[in-house]
Protein: procollagen-proline 4-dioxygenase
Organism: Astrephomene gubernaculifera
Amino acid sequence: MRATLPLIFLLHVVLALSGSDFEERLIGWQGETYTHSHGPPDEWALTLDEPEGVPWVETVSWSPRVFVYHNFLSSAECRHIKRVAAPMMKQSSVVGQNGSSVLDTYRTSYGTFVKRRHDPVIERVLRRVAAWTKTPVENQEDLQVLRYGVGQKYGAHTDSLIDDSPRMATVLLYLHDTEEGGETAFTSPAASWLDPQLEERLGPFSECARGHVAFRPKKGDALMFWSIKPDGTHDPLSMHTGCPVVRGVKWTATSWVHTMPYNYEDYLKQGNPGKGGRGSGGDEEREGEPGACEDFHSQCSTWASSGECSKNPTYMNANCGRACRRCEPCDADQLSGTERLACINRNRKKLGFLVYDTTELEW
């Protein structure tokens, strides 16, 4: 009888604690399932509007480690990022052998970087990335926004860039629905789906992505994959490609997450209007249309006179196009609206900037 008393007492305790708090701690003991939380409530409260669907995370693969956050962004956030980036987008480059940026057919998109603290919307999105990756927001690089047209792609590559603070994770934000192609595909033969049925459910895929662990661009979704293993070594299975766009266009924003704060001094300045940050009028944060053929720095004429147009063409073409006579003036008081737009687009093409349809930014 004495031996059964503890068991009877324990049974009474269990029955007495069968309320919601106890059941929450023992999820599954009566057939319950986990309820999914889509992120810190304070972060979602700061969005421009609510995502169109229920935010939830799905594991795509453990080899490599790939996850999809469905409905990570709202449509308004997608539009905002495209509007901010579009005017400054130029043909994308790759890292050359000496570390410099060079143009290559390996990567044929247009892109630009948006400062991490460019505006409150960008900051909020990147704080959400930090919350998902469980890393400080200052460990991220500036946000790279890319646009791919039909046939444009990015060949197979890895993102880790092993150095003192390697990129340990990549978060790809999809800003636009792509009609066909444009998938992010992991090309290693050893890459494998968590569940083979995912390939059918997440597809159909273009020829480039077929047979690989892959994800189709869907507006508002985010794809996260890890470039280094938990032991800190490079993960070769993270090799991936941006498949050619077959129909439509593809817009993405990439946040690379490092193991340590990235370019921390610049990050701090971005939030200080008095030290070259947002709102200071500094060149890096200038607002304007490069195709309008304006000078964005008061010293442009002086620099042009001293030969900087040929010595430093990348900066001067983008910031002092008028002083360097790299473009034709498109003054609003001398041209009609249609004529000025045509003039701006001619300049954009000549200077290597993306020529785009503004209605595309509203999709």
Q: What stands out?
A: The radius of gyration is 25 Å. Residues 200 and 210 are 10 Å apart (CA to CA). The longest strand covers residues 250-258.
